[in-house]
Amino acid sequence: MNDKNDLLNQLHIDRNAPAAPRSLTPWLIACLIGLLLVASAGIWHFYGAAPVSVKVQVARKPSQSATTTSVLDATGYVVARRSANVASKVTGKVVELYIEEGMRVEKDQVVAKLDDVNVQKNHAVIQAQLAASKTQVTEVRARLHEAKLTFERTNHLRKQQLISQSQMDTAQANYDSVAAQLANREQLVAVSTKLLEQSAQNLDDLILRAPFAGVVTVKTAQQGEMLSAAGFSNIGVCKLVDMTSLEVEVDVNEAYIQRVVPGQLAEAVLEAYPDWKIPAKVIAIIPTADRQKATVKVRIGFAQLDPKILPDMGVKVAFLDSEPTTPRAAPVTGIRIPATAVRTLGDSQYLLIVRAGTLEQREIKIKTGAGADVYVLDGLSAGENFVTQVDDKLQPGARVTAE
C-alpha cells in the first residue's frame, strides 16, 4: 500500500511550484533573424545606398518667336586684326626670356632681353667723353674771361695812346681765338650728349617689349639663341595676338556677293562647337576680288567675344535675311523631350522626374515629334527636371544625382 501511495504522490502536480523556463525552438529563432535581415536590407536600399548618377534635362516650353532665314552660307577662319611677331631691331643673343605660350602680357611689358655687354661698354666711353668735354668747356671759359680782361685793359691803354696798335690787335685776336675755342668745346659737349642719348637708345633696343596687350600664341626663340635684326629676318621671340580683335574672314563667291551688305546680321558656327550659334554682323566687304578663286573677302565681327573662340579656327557663317519671318505652320504644342526619356509599360508611357534628389515615376501623354524627339501633352510642366536616358535599373524612389 505504501508503495502505491508513493507512486501517486510522484504523479501529483504541485500548482504552487514555479514554472520551468521555456526554451525557444530553432524555427522561431530563424524567423526572427530573417525578419531582421529583410528590414535591414530595406532600410539600406532606401537610405543607405549611394546615389546613382543620371543625365537630367530641364523641361522648357517651345519657342514661338519669329525666325530669320539664311540667304547665303560661307566658310572661313577666325583671324586677329592685331597680331605681331615681336622681333629685335638689332642683332643680339637672348639672355633673358620672360614669356611662355598662352601667357597674357600687357602693353610695354618686357618679354625678353638681349646681351648688352658691348653696348654698355660703348655707353661708358661716351659718358667719359661727355665728362671730358664739359671739363674743357670750363677751362676755356676761364681762359676767355682772362682774355676779355686783357682786351679791355689794352683797349683802355690804347685810347690813352700808351700802347701801339699792334699790341691792341694782339689782344683782340687772342680774345676772339679763345671765344671760338669755347664755342667749339660747347659743340663737342652737345655732340657727346647726342651720342649718349643714342647709346641709351641702343641699350633700350636690347629690351624687347610687347607692342600691345595680348596673348602669346607661339614662342619662337630660346635663351642663348641669336636674333637677327628685323630688317633682315622676320624671326622674333614670340607671336603676340590681341584677342579683343578677333573676327571672321570668309570668301564669298562673287556671283552671290550682292546678297551681302555691311551691317547685315549673321550667325557663326565654329567647327569645334557645332551646336553653338554665335551672333555676328558683317563689318565690311573688301572692295576687290580674287580673280583666281572668283571670290570676294568679307569681314564678320562677333557680337560678343568668348574665351573659346581662338585664332585660325574653322567657322561656318550663315548670312541672315534682314526681315525676320514668322512660320506659317501651326504653333507646336507640348514640351519637346528626347524619346530616350520615355519609359513604356504596357500601353502607358512614363517619365522619371527628379524631385529633391529622388526619382518619381509619372505617367504622361505624348505625340510623335520630328526626328528623335517627342512632345509631352500632359504630365510634365516647364521647369521640372527629368531623366533623359531611362534604364531598367532606375526605379521610383531611388536616390540620384544629376550629371
Explain the overall architecture:
With 403 residues, this protein is an alpha+beta fold. It has 4 domains: 52-64 and 329-402, conserved putative lor/sdh protein from methanococcus maripaludis s2 fold (Beta Barrel); 70-80 and 245-320, Elongation Factor Tu (Ef-tu), domain 3; 87-114 and 207-240, Beta Barrel (OB fold (Dihydrolipoamide Acetyltransferase, E2P)), CATH 2.40.50.100; 117-205. The chain is built from 4 helices and 23 strands. It has helices spanning 2-11, 26-48, 117-159, 165-205; strands spanning 52-54, 56-58, 70-80, 83-86, 92-97, 104-105, 110-114, 207-209, 214-219, 226-227, 238-241, 246-253, 265-270, 277-290, 295-302, 314-320, 335-338, 343-345, 348-355, 358-368, 373-378, 385-387, 400-402. The strands form 5 sheets. Strands 2, 17, 18, 19, 20, 21 and 22 form a 7-stranded antiparallel β-sheet that branches. The protein has a 6-stranded antiparallel barrel with strand order 3-12-15-14-13-16. Helix 3 packs antiparallel against helix 4. The longest helix is centred in the middle third of the chain and has 43 residues, at 117-159. The protein starts with a helix and ends with a strand.
| Proportion of residues in helical segments | 25-40%
Count of discrete domains: 4
- Counting helices, strands and paired strands, the structural category is alpha+beta
Radius of gyration: 48 Å
Shape: elongated
